[in-house]
Amino acid sequence: MTTSNPTAPVSPSLVIIRGNSGSGKTTAAREVRRRFGRGAALLEQDYLRRTVLREHDSAHIQPVAPAFITATARAALDLGYHVILEGILHTERYATELHQLIDNHAGPVAVFYLEVSFDETVRRHLGREEPIPVTPDEMRRWYTHRDLLDVPGETVIPETSTLEQTVTTILHASGLTHATPQTPCPRRCRHCTRESDQTAATAVVS
Question: What is the pTM of this model?
């Protein structure tokens, strides 16, 4: 029988948020990280693939992005960051690397899929404050119905879920609601300590 060591370091959490373009995954992921605060790394597929690598998302070129994105996630986890990874992350190209990332992570893992119909993704795209220059025909080529990663405990969030409900579900189901930062900045940084003290003082006054 093994006994737990209460002083042993706790592995950080890996949170994966997937869904079609226009499903709301990026907005939800950013809000989850904002509410958690420092100590959580937000990795956005579009930024890493389009901006960092400038690579087309095609299965015909043996893309580098899947390995690059999951390696970035592993590096952040190894450094003690909770990781919030978001993107379409099509299983056709990303399933193998994502499964390896999940299987090799010793800490908590939570996977979410935002299930939104094609018509709703188009409506949301057209309603953006800063529209993305894509046509419904282009979006249809990207759209994949219920492209689940098929891992234990994968949570499917329906399109009827509001942003507040989605963020709350992700925070609670992933355990981030009660998780503590493990990286040096929020744990030992003078600035973070000052912010924490100011927040505590405000709470006492109110």
Answer: 0.88
